[in-house]
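User: Before I run my own analysis I want an independent prediction to cross-check against. Here's the chain; please return only the structure tokens and, at the end, one sentence I can use as a sanity check.
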Amino acid sequence: TFVTTVSEATSGRKVFESSDRRENESSDRMYGFRTDVPLRNLPPGRYILGVEATSTLGPRARRDVLFEVIP
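Assistant: Structure tokens:
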């Protein structure tokens, strides 16, 4: 399962969330993932993009990236 979120950096309020569950048909432990994150309507400010992957084969992985929307 892949979960993508965008949250306001200062308040932590979640402004976007997307979840996608896929079956990995490959024996590899790697899997590609892509999702569209709508940025057009975000007001200027700092945000955190979070991507989390969970698998029945092992522990979850999470990465957070700080970004800024400027006018």
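Sanity check: The radius of gyration is 14 Å.
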